[in-house]
UniProtKB/TrEMBL annotation:
Pfam families found in the cross-reference section: CoiA_C, CoiA_N, CoiA_nuc
Residue ranges constituting the Competence protein CoiA-like N-terminal domain according to the UniProt record: 18-64
Domain Competence protein CoiA nuclease-like as annotated: residue spans: 68-223
Competence protein CoiA C-terminal domain residues: 247-344
Lineage of the organism: Bacteria, Bacillati, Bacillota, Bacilli, Bacillales
Name of the protein this chain belongs to: Competence protein CoiA
Length: 397
């Protein structure tokens, strides 16, 4: 920790103590206490970590159970200095007694309190949600910032996100983003336009900004870029078809489902596994959850028949209940309508002309999705599909 109390009850911070001589003098002449648990702490001023306070005994402090690395100490120090430079009322390591919790930084902007948590170590989902809800119970908006070193980039606009990384997705269901920070480079990184291809592999637009150049409000602003990686998504989708031809097993529930419905994974139509808004709410791979909905509903309809939104919702909800489709919790999102990706998928078929709405929530099947019989036929249909609908698939989501 960087902040402690002295005998007089005043707060003392080490973030701006520049000389080791001054630190040794403070350590010799003063006694300090943890603001949270009131037990004695001492100054640590070695050659590895930046100067900080530490409990003298191996004491489990309720508000500070994690050990702090140099990366974490430096990170919250630089974020605090940035906010002070921008003239925000900010408090380093503010203890909130009502919830027995200490925020890395507590600040006030436009009469609203914010708690900034710079997280460089892994914590459990239960702890993350508990701390988030505790802040909200006091009217404090939590802002969780991921350590940039945790972002695993595996290709152009392609990233591998662990379950832990997904917890940092914030914003709205229309414009979710992950905010990260690198204290060594003093830069904020954002992953925006996050579209998951599978539970871990996502496509996203990555942006960078140095701390001095951006205001605090920029953390909440989302870019409005058109989908910049449709061709990469298409390559990944094509690779999935080719790979599945070699590895699919009838013993796997999803591939057994395709087999029962007389569809091969290698010829699953390109209309299944497309990037649509809201799909970050679903943990199950995009191809799989869209295949369940498509085969349960539109695939079974003949041209001219009626398809209702309620039928699609029933399929989607039943698959969730059965465990075929898994959802993400995403506790930082402002709102979560888990029907949102389904509704957008149904509207995708309306926009591409497969169905036509004739009454609210009721559609007429205008044409059937062609199920190719061979991989060569699939390649031709896939090429035509992306040629015709590229603009729709790339529109700002």
């Amino acid at each position: 920790m960087l902040t402690a109390k002295n005998k007089q009850g005043s707060y003392v911070s080490l973030y701006n103590i520049m000389t080791k001589e001054k630190l040794l003098e403070m350590k010799k002449e003063e006694t300090f206490y943890c603001p949270c648990c009131e037990t004695e702490v001492t100054i640590k001023a070695g050659n590895i970590k930046i100067p900080h306070f530490a409990h003298i005994r191996n004491f489990s402090c309720n508000a500070s159970s994690e050990s702090e690395s140099e990366y974490h100490l430096l990170g919250k120090t630089k974020l605090y200095q940035w906010l002070i430079y921008k003239q925000y009322p900010a408090f380093l390591e503010a203890y909130i007694p009502e919830i027995r919790q200490r925020a890395d930084i507590l600040l006030i902007a436009d009469s609203q309190k914010y708690a900034i948590e710079f997280q460089s170590s892994t914590i459990s989902e239960e702890d993350f949600i508990r701390r988030t809800n505790a802040y909200r119970s006091q009217g404090i908006i939590p802002i969780w910032i991921l350590a940039e070193r945790n972002i695993n980039k595996i290709g152009q606009n392609m990233f591998s996100l662990r379950n832990f990384d997904w917890m940092f997705l914030s914003g709205t269901e229309d414009s979710p983003a992950i905010i990260a920070f690198c204290p060594y480079k003093s830069r904020i990184t954002k992953l925006e336009k996050v579209f998951p291809f599978s539970p871990r592999t996502v496509f996203a637009y990555q942006s960078f900004a140095t701390l001095p150049s951006i205001p605090f409000e920029s953390l909440f602003h989302q870019s409005s870029h058109r989908l910049p990686y449709l061709s990469l998504w298409r390559d990944k989708r094509r690779s999935w078809s080719f790979h599945s031809a070699k590895t699919a097993k009838i013993t796997q529930p999803f591939f057994r489902f395709l087999y029962v419905n007389r569809i091969s994974p290698v010829t699953l139509p390109p209309e299944v596994g497309v990037p649509i808004a809201g799909m970050h709410l679903v943990e199950t791979a995009s191809i799989k959850w869209q295949a369940y909905v498509f085969i349960d509903t539109l695939y079974r309809k003949a041209q001219g028949q009626t398809l209702s939104m309620n039928e699609c919702i029933h399929s989607y909800s039943s698959r969730i209940k059965n465990g075929d489709i898994r959802l993400r919790k995403l506790s930082l999102l402002d709102k979560k309508n888990y029907l949102y990706p389904l509704i957008n998928y149904v509207w995708f078929f309306r926009k591409t002309g497969y169905i036509e709405e004739y009454n609210s929530g009721y559609f007429k099947v205008m044409k059937k999705v062609v199920i190719p019989k061979t991989y060569d036929q699939w390649l031709e249909l896939e090429k035509e599909f992306y040629y015709r609908h590229q603009k729709l698939l790339q529109e700002d989501k």
